[in-house]
Amino acid sequence: MTVGLFIPCYVDQFYPSAAKATLELLQKLGVDVVYPLNQTCCGQPMANSGFEYLSQDCNDLFIKNFSSFDYIVGPSASCILHIKEHLHADKNEEQATNIRTKVYELVEFLTDVLKIEKLDAVFPHKVGLHHSCHGLRGLHLSQMSELNAPPFSKPQHLLNMVSGLEQIKLDRLDECCGFGGAFCVSEEAVSVKMGKDRVKDHTKNGAEYITSSDLSCLMHLEGILHRNKSSVKIIHIAEILNATR
Amino acid sequence: MSQTKTKDHAAMARAFIKDEERVDWHDGALWYIREKRDLAAKQIPEWEQLRETASMIKNNVISNLHDYLLQFEANLTKNGVVVHWADSAEEHNEIVYSILKAKEINQMVKSKSMLTEECHLNEYLEERGIEVINSDLGEYIQQIDQEPPSHIVLPCIHKRKEEIGELFHEHLGTEKGLSDPTLLTRVARKHLRNIFLTRRGALTGVNFAVAETGEYVVCTNEGNADMGAHLSEVQIASMGLEKIIPQKKHLGIFLRLLARSATGQPITIYSSHYKKPRKGQEMHLILVDAGRTRQLGRPDFRDSLKCIKCGGCMNTCPVYRKSGGLSYQNTISGPIGAILAPNLDMKKHADLPYASTLCGSCSNVCPVKINIHEQLYKWRQEIVKEGYAPTTKTLGMKTMAWTLSSPEKLSTAGKAGRWFLHNVPFVVNNKLNPWYRQRDMPEGPKESFAEWFTKNSVKK
Question: Is the minimum CB–CB distance between B100 and chain A shorter than 8 Å?
Fold first, then answer.
């Protein structure tokens, strides 16, 4: 099994440690990982702003980089969801369709494809899990609180395998953090208020770390934490799952 | 009839958020209702099946609207109700006016109806010498304050009880400083009682119109629709074309969903069925299009017509909770308003599909399973296509797309973060940058992952 590692543009540039952890974790689990160097972006920044028609070059490049792998895995639920829902190519629709069925967010790849039941990770801290909306309601990584349906959570299942880790309980289980792509600047006031309220939920319930499968949410929450000189840190879930003593 | 507005949603929301204590209270009040809704939904094992069934019935309705409307009209006529068809808001208002004028009625009582708010009926009638009193308590309060409703189910949810006490003091002569909800309600009740007893004309909205029988159902918690209708000589009902359900038996599904989704109640206190006029009474029903058939003709957006106006999407929407309903500047606010409004006036409401993080919670609470967040995404594409996006935004997007589509351009853009630092708005470190106003920027690492990988690729 060969996996193409998709590292979204902003993760590559701002959070390389999460990308390294993803690569190392997959390798530790015996996966043959290839990182195509010519990759850039999933195209979501344009598409979510209403400029989907400008994202075709990104789509074509993505197809060129990733169509040869058995699976494509990336540490960002939002980007993966975008590929799953919107990757199209008039000239190459067959390959686009094929990619849409084999692209996985890291957490779901670990639980659904590798089906791992134990991990060698150690992370002796109190951790709050932030469900990114695209991971939750888009990729169904966990049960959504609005539905009358049996609960489950893939990220929680993985975090349960980490020794020393204590998961804190939140008042609002799966509320949006307010990042929302361009929303974070175009609706700055609402975005920040939403972020502050999510941060408050985590801090008042004792989190030392806020983790998620989406760094875009975490980048926004980190900006608020830093501005307010909070000691609470953000960490991508791959870094926790890859942490050793 | 494109109107301009001086402030967009973001600016209105910013003004609302200035009073953080109020926002926290507003957010908490609506979240409490969302929690009540969850509790009510989770007490019914077949909840998701109910939603699916309701969704399918409404799919059937909007696909066969023509036939159901004709059937409904025929049955209404058979029952002795006069049926009117209105193509536009103006035509609707003219019809109401002509009905009242024929009976020389110059005072009317009106129960909650978002359609008549959308048509600006009160203003229209008042300009022609007809006084209208809203009898729903929340709408009554909003009317006294000369403000539109901020929520379709809870019209004055943005007001605190002290502010309502102040309004009552000013307009109804209650003692200053009175803020006890029970006492305030009693005062309103007394005033409204007199209105009900003296009004010869009454108008109600319609929650469900049953094609099979020609009856319509109005749901209230206050009984105000009934008080108005039962005491009137002329009873008028205004409904949007989409309010049809095929058969009476379908009410069992919709009535179970409506109140649970709206407020977490098992059912509204009153579900009143109106079918025929009393002896000596006149009953009129106005079927209003006002853009609905245009929406029906948009394949991506026609599902929005399934809405039963429960307001559940507003209660769960974090953007709505933090920004208040008035910031949407449309009668129907919140997520559902943001997919209905661009159909009415795309230029004026071009900001609304962007007043969302696309979190998707709205679609999950929707009792008729409208894919609200997907329609928000699609409206954005539509708005850009129609040329309603600001030019600066278009240029920025083109630059971004050009750079991101090529690894060479992105990497010659420089070392870790350099391209981003110059081109992504949220990382510029100055006061003009909206990201930086209340958030620090990410700390740029020494090297990007790609740089690290290239150096260490032997590690594999």
Answer: no
